[in-house]
């Protein structure tokens, strides 16, 4: 773990863990995608017939079919060739396209035009993309005036990779959430996965940094939501039944003016 000092290629590592990630999440997304993230994004974006939606860091493309079912057009961008291959195979269709590209530098992409999208989504990807400025710049560039940016991500106040966790207070007999660091931006190599090669990186930034980058780019925040993991998922998958009041995910919606 280190303070962020220079530009790292945030895509490093995703190629190596692509097989593990698609096995874990599947074509339709993990239980967190299906129960929490995708419904939240669809609710905030509310895509309509004929609209064009861009999914940044789309990975296996679990969002694609949800967008197309509304009669909208879906474009997914990712830097991992293997994840894009999986996405095309499992989530491709008449109204979808999956493009290779760097989400932090979309300007000049041969298949994308400035101001051509009604919506841009980061679905559980922005905390893994660096630099943040480049990612938000690209989103603002791709959006038409009046278009919407929707970000669904891990909650940086309560989920700092390797610097937060659950604890048990024996005296008070309660589970608590411990946060060891917050204000410093951090670049955190994630634990290598058993079935993967290489290490992905996650980027912690305080909430203020996200909002600063958003509002500097003619984007006005008009919705902000926080989500705890529903009890039934948390008991089944993390064995912790006491975290229903601590939001581990958040969503932001902003409109370009
Ligand atoms: C945690 S995965 C999320 C994937 C997908 N949105 C989902 O919810 O399943 C993060 C994704 O961001 C992609 N990514 C990271 N940095 C990127 C960059 N600079 N440009 C494009 N994609 C990037 C990775 O390849 C990976 O697919």
What would your notes on this structure say?
The chain is of the alpha/beta class. The chain has a single domain (8-154, 210-256), classed as Rossmann fold. The chain is 28% helix and 29% strand. Strands 4-3-2-5-6-12-11 form a seven-stranded mixed sheet, sandwiched between helices. Helix 3 (64-69) links the parallel strand 2 (52-56) and strand 3. Helix 1 (14-25) packs parallel to helix 4 (81-91). Bound molecules: S-adenosylmethionine.
The CATH superfamily is: Vaccinia Virus protein VP39
SSE ordering: EHHEHEHEEHEEEEEHEHE
Strand numbers in spatial order across the main sheet: 4-3-2-5-6-12-11
Beta strand %: 25-35%
What is the structure about, briefly put?
The chain is an alpha/beta fold and 257 residues long. The protein is built from seven helices and twelve strands. It has helices at residues 14-25, 31-45, 64-69, 81-91, 132-142, 207-215, 231-237; strands at residues 2-3, 52-56, 73-78, 96-100, 117-123, 143-154, 164-169, 174-179, 186-189, 201-204, 219-227, 249-256.
């Amino acid at each position: 773990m280190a303070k962020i000092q220079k530009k790292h290629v945030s895509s490093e590592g995703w190629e190596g863990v692509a097989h593990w990630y698609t096995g874990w999440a599947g074509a339709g997304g993990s239980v967190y995608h299906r129960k929490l993230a995708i419904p939240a994004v669809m609710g905030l974006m509310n895509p309509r017939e004929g609209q064009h939606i861009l999914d940044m860091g789309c990975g296996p493309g679990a969002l694609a079919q949800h967008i197309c079912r509304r009669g909208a057009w879906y474009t997914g961008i990712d830097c991992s060739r293997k994840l894009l291959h999986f996405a095309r195979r499992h989530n491709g269709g008449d109204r979808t396209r999956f493009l290779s590209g760097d989400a932090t530098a979309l300007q000049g992409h041969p298949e994308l035009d400035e101001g051509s999208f009604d919506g841009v989504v980061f679905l559980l990807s922005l905390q893994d993309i660096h630099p943040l400025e480049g990612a938000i710049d690209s989103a603002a560039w791709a959006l038409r005036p009046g278009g919407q940016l929707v970000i669904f991500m891990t909650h940086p106040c309560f989920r700092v990779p390797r610097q937060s966790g659950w604890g048990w207070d024996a005296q008070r007999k309660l589970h608590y959430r411990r946060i060891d660091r917050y204000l410093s931006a951090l670049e955190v190599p994630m634990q290598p996965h058993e079935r993967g090669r290489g290490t992905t990186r996650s980027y912690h930034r305080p909430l203020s940094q996200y909002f600063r980058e958003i509002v500097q780019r003619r984007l006005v925040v008009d919705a902000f939501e926080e989500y705890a993991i529903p009890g039934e998922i948390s008991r089944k998958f993390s064995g912790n039944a006491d975290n229903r009041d601590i939001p581990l995910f958040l969503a932001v919606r902003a409109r370009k003016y």
